[in-house]
């Protein structure tokens, strides 16, 4: 089954992911911890790595079932077809979530934007994580159009 990109309402990513998981779907919604400051305190907040997106592994015939979940808006389309994320990119996102890597930032890739990357051992067998400096690496997700910058422990 392919991995589709489900677009959610803003700030609904974790709620939609949780509900879909409870309904028996295989989902991928990696998160990162951010420190937010208010006038009286600082707090660690869990935020999704991919804003307004949840990846879902679902059969083509079952795609409409996700819209029973509040907050699910539509699927992402590319050239008139539903966008499909390769398994290796989903696996990189799962590796990031499982290894509790500290995500520094998430940046959108612009057309023609080139990043000078060297081989790095984090998930080198997948060919999607590249080394750039002593304490940072970039995970390039070409099909989603994002670069995820990680702090290496």
From TrEMBL:
Organism superkingdom: Bacteria
Keyword Transcription set for record: yes
Gene3D superfamilies per the UniProt record, alphabetical: NusG, N-terminal domain (3.30.70.940)
GO biological process: DNA-templated transcription elongation
Residue ranges annotated for the NusG-like N-terminal domain, each copy included: 2-92
Record flagged with keyword Metal-binding: no
InterPro entries, alphabetized: NGN-like_dom (IPR006645), NGN_dom_sf (IPR036735)
Keywords, ordered alphabetically: Transcription
Parts forming coiled coils: none
NCBIfam families hit by this protein: antiterm_UpxY (NF033644)
The protein's name in its UniProt record: UpxY family transcription antiterminator
Originating species: Gelidibacter gilvus
The organism's taxonomic lineage, starting at the top: Bacteria, Pseudomonadati, Bacteroidota, Flavobacteriia, Flavobacteriales
């Amino acid at each position: 089954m392919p991995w589709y990109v489900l677009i959610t309402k803003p700030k609904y990513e974790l709620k939609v992911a949780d509900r879909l998981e409870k309904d028996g779907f295989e989902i991928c919604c990696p998160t990162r911890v951010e420190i937010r400051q208010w006038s009286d305190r600082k707090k660690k907040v869990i935020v999704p790595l991919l804003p307004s997106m949840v990846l879902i592994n679902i059969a083509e015939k079952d795609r409409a079932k996700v819209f029973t979940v509040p907050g699910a808006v539509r699927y992402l389309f590319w050239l008139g077809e539903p966008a499909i994320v390769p398994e290796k990119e989903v696996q990189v996102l799962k590796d990031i979530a499982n290894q509790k890597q500290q995500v520094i930032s998430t940046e959108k890739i612009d057309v023609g934007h080139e990043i000078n990357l060297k081989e790095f051992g984090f998930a080198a067998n997948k060919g999607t994580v590249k080394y750039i400096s002593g304490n940072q690496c970039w995970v390039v997700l070409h099909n989603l159009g994002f670069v995820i910058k990680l702090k290496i422990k």
